[in-house]
Amino acid sequence: MLPYGRQSIIESDIEAVVEVLRGDWLTTGPAVRLFEDELAQWTGGVPCVSVTSGTAALHVAYAAAGVGHGDEVITSPLTFVATAATAVLGGARVAFADVQPDTGNIDPDSAAALVTPRTRAITGVDYAGHPADYDELRTLADRAGAVLVADAAHSIGASYKERPVGSVADLTTFSFFPTKTVTTAEGGAVAAADPAHLERATRFRNHGLVRDPAEQRDPGHGGWHQEVHEFGLNYRLPDVLCALGVSQLRRLERFRARRAALVARYNTLLADVPGLTLPAQRAYVTPSWHLYPVRVRDGRRREVYERMRAAGIGVQVNYIPAYWHPVFEDLGYRRGLCPRAEAYYAEELSLPLFADLTHDEQDRVVETLAGILG
Known about the structure:
Elements: H1 11-21, H2 30-40, E1 48-51, H3 54-64, E2 72-75, H4 82-89, E3 93-96, H5 108-112, E4 119-125, H6 134-144, E5 147-151, E6 159-160, E7 163-164, E8 171-175, E9 188-192, H7 195-204, E10 209-210, E11 227-228, H8 239-249, H9 252-269, E12 276-277, E13 285-286, E14 292-296, H10 301-310, H11 326-329, H12 339-347, E15 348-351, H13 359-373
Helix pairs in contact: 1-8, 2-8, 3-4, 3-7
């Protein structure tokens, strides 16, 4: 089965991991700081905190933003459920804004209609690797007194109006799952420009521990003494995975260029295939394509999905609207809440896209899809 996404691992990645395994530090060591520093080169210098997954990154970001009981978080439903679930786990209520019909990104006008005095955070999602409209979201967040969060799980290395993703929001989250552009096997990170947000994120990912005697309430007991002032969790990404991440980040530009070339080739090869809508791109963004999401019109998405997979091509659907999950239904959310997001979902189909996809494999995808729709 040709997968829709797959990691690219070469000998230098393996050597980087083996070097750590032969060293003294498997976790909380020098590879962690090196990885965070390497990642900051892609965020315009905004410092980063590594964590164990993209989901952990969202949880840490909301904690750093002070999201808690009685707060509201506005976000898109066209995302993996974790974007919303981690806000709910922090005690907040999620308000789902509808999406733009072409990019699938959160619609700032829809988000604006949901703002209340309880709005604590507004979370954009860079669907498929295409950055959301952050200037409009920034204006909205500032007017509401809210924190602007970017779920950039798909968009590492992308830019918005010549500003790197990681620098356009107050807090930005990344994912390094194997299907993403860069992988640490499992892993994520939070970029935080504000020192207070950075400190809260750093502490939360390490149980909330305070080790600096100058900041402790009851210091003077000895070098072993540590305190917890606010609860946190163990979301530390170990050195062995950070080493893989460093090696991968040093190939990020090549990964991005290859994915962009494959997207351009898909656009050319699929231009005349009937019944398809190809992904949109705003003139003022440079995407970092994680997905190649086509829209299959005329109610044929399920048929195409099943026939493509029967042909050995692992297409995928990204994503079920978050509030369709039974856990949100049990909280009172109902279908029909975001009509444009639901319409997008009803047609969306992700075609295989990864750095090692060959032209022959891509031709097979296109020929099979054209044969079904032709």
